[in-house]
Please model this.
Amino acid sequence: MNPQESTGRLATGTAKRLAGQLKNLADPVRVRLLSIIVAARREGVSAGEVAEAFDLTKPTVSHHLKVLGEAGLVTRERSGTHIIYRPTSAARRLHTVLRGIPGEAAAEREEGLRSVLDELDGGWRPAAEEAGASAQVPVERPLPGLLDPEDLLERVQERLTIRFAGVFTPETVHRYLRDSYERLSHSAAVTAHLPALTERFAAERLASVARCEGLLHKVVPEVLFVCVRNAGRSQMAAALLRHLAGDRVQIRSAGSAPGEGVDPDVAAVMTEIGIDLGTEFPKPLTDEVVHSADIVITMGCGDACPVYLGKRYLDWEIPEPLGESRPVIRLIRDEVDRRIRRELLPGLLG
Amino acid sequence: MRGGEDYTSCVSQVRSSAALSAAEPSGAVPAPPPSTEAAFDEEAAALVAHLLKAIADPTRLRLLAMIRHASDGAACVQDLADALDIGQPTASHHLKILVDAGLLVRCKRGKHSWYSVQPERDELVRGLVD
Model:
């Protein structure tokens, strides 16, 4: 190890060169091309051979090979009528480093699942099936940055802005939020819950102001979320909507076959975004609760939910989080959040 | 390591096919196309490209090098900005990109955020900046 390494300094010139090389390589097709060329070693490959293997046109492959050549990762040499591409030693070194990446299962799986979730609109494929093959080890990693109070406050700000849209400007919300945070940070004993407490406190203050000034509607719509166990999906949905709409909406949740308690993993991924499911519990689906609702959102409970006239019914295909790893549950949480914001809030908050 | 074996066997497969084609007189049947088995599959290649995009910047490479070699594997924004002679907002901006890409982890110690290399990505970072 030379002294340069021990202090962790990377010379500016070296950093620039390496950055340029990596930038040229940072494309899925070129990553795969590099892999093939490195595998072919000294014998090299022609653009035509690669094009065939990749199902790409020869000009496309030639273009990518040119970019790799500019990065000093492949050399080109004419051999008869062909041009043969070979890896440089830098390419082989780099490839050895990169080969380790996809082996690290968690991120790969997360990527895979993300693409699955992206297809959610076109119908959900069972998550277990997708994840099962590569997922022997449940991998848990902290979601980067989410436990930072500033990040949590940012999310709170976003939610309160939505909740008070049309009543208060984002700036007013921001002012109340910051002021509430300041006040609470002087008195709160447990700082871990500070962002959550701040959200409630700020929301109550803003609501009182709005009521005083006659800005809030007195009659609030009632929303009911129904899933099977009322331990995961409908709990997440209810909590998310509560944080987004506050007391502008009456929110209930229920399950067609209620579980014993809220899933700890579900509670954990909600805590990460500053929402506490602490006192929530699974509740059975009853006739009255459906009767009193204005909007009923069902999530995977089949036709267990009675249908009455004059209500708005939405059926969301959200996968069951039970037994999934936290990265997957996070994706489910975000999907629920997205649908609430997109499909529910516009009608509720006008 | 199943992946390693696949890779090795594939390399030898590609080598032997290339050797065969070299032995053939020119104008004969073209050699079989190189095997793509060793290549990253599409999903893996997308992940690799995604990570490379985040890393491919001189300042971010230098930040990664600094953090990797920090005394306890973690460094705060101010120290990093000072060491690289850049402004704190610039450092924060680059750190956020690295955190978002899953290369760094941020944690709060006292008043400051500390950054360390995401353990899963340690090998990659070491391979690139050491």
About this structure: The two ends of chain A are 63 Å apart (CA to CA).
